[in-house]
Amino acid sequence: MPAIGPGYDDPEYDNYDPAWRHQDTPFRRWLRGRLTEAGVGCAADIAASYAPTNRYNGLHSDDMDTLATLTGASIDEVRSAHRADLEDCAREQQLRDHPDLAVLDADLDRLRRRS
């Protein structure tokens, strides 16, 4: 019987995007840094698996508990990193929806760095 819907290797399946193997996000940086500080040997792999989940599906309370335990952070710190990443994602989406804002954004960044 043929499968209904996208297959396991379809890019639309489970929000998988091959770019996630390398894409840098605020949550991924935060998680990798905290795991590294905590002495977790596979910090980059854990961060690579939780970053897309955080951005596309959100973190469940069990995920937040696990990450807090692994990183030595509080639930509030994990939640704060999660929200910062979602804000960054919203900003990226706004720039994609309005490419002309990218020029303005770059100019504002330049002004901020200058002062």
Low-confidence stretches: 1-6
- Helix fraction bin: 55-70%
Distance between the termini: 64 Å
Global morphology: elongated
* Total helical segments: 5
Biggest sheet details: none
Strand share of the residues?
under 5%
Q: Averaging pLDDT over every residue, what do you get?
A: 81
Rg, nearest Å? 17 Å
DSSP strand tally: 0
Class from helix and strand fractions:
mainly alpha
Helix-strand string: HHHHH
Characterization of this structure:
This protein is mainly α. The longest helix is centred in the last third of the chain and has 23 residues, at 75-97. The chain contains five helices and no strands.
What's this, in brief?
The chain has 115 residues and is mainly alpha-helical. It has 5 helices and no strands.
List descriptors:
115 residues, 66% helix, elongated, single chain
Set down the secondary structure blueprint:
Elements: H1 26-37, H2 43-57, H3 61-71, H4 75-97, H5 100-114
